């Protein structure tokens, strides 16, 4: 998608706050007809601006799930190394999030596991096998203090 106008940006803001908002409510908020609003949303989806929708779970309700935050340092930071690493990460659904970082490590990854044994398997079979990895530093979360949809909760 080339560029977003004010209506597109407003639609994205509203959807980030509540992705389950009805099309009629979205249309009313941004001043479009329901059909024009739906067409805009479809274009945002097809253009890759909206890549999907998700559910935020209360960590107390998702029993046994432990978030592990992993800092990855690559052997080299060339475009070739970055591209190979990112392509490999995308092939593993166990990796829930991946961020290219500034600072001490090159990437920050998030995985969710049921126990240390499951993480050991992911570490051996996936993380250690990712191309160009020099160092892996993992931290287990104690609990999730804050997970937001954007600027606030409704």
Write the layout of secondary structure elements.
Elements (H helix, E strand, L loop, with lengths): L5 H12 L5 H8 L3 H13 L19 E9 L4 H12 L4 E6 L6 E7 L2 H10 L7 E8 L14
Q: List the strand order in the largest sheet.
A: 2-3-1-4
Based on helices, strands and strand pairing, what is the structural class? Answer: alpha+beta
Query: What's the tally of helices?
Result: 5
How many β strands by DSSP?
4
- Please name the CATH architecture of the largest domain: 2-Layer Sandwich
Q: Report the sheet with the most strands, covering strand number, pairing sense and barrel closure.
A: 4 strands, antiparallel
Residue share in helices? 25-40%
Q: Fill in the CATH topology of the largest domain.
A: Alpha-Beta Plaits
Q: Please, what is the average pLDDT?
A: 88
CATH class of the largest domain, anyone?
Answer: Alpha Beta
- Total count of domains: 2
CATH homologous superfamily identity of the largest domain: Lrp/AsnC effector binding domain/regulation of amino acid metabolism (RAM) domain
Percent of residues in beta strands:
15-25%
Cα-atom Rg, whole angstroms? Answer: 19 Å
Helix/strand order, N-terminal first: HHHEHEEHE
Shape: elongated
Low-pLDDT windows of residues: none
Distance between the termini: 29 Å
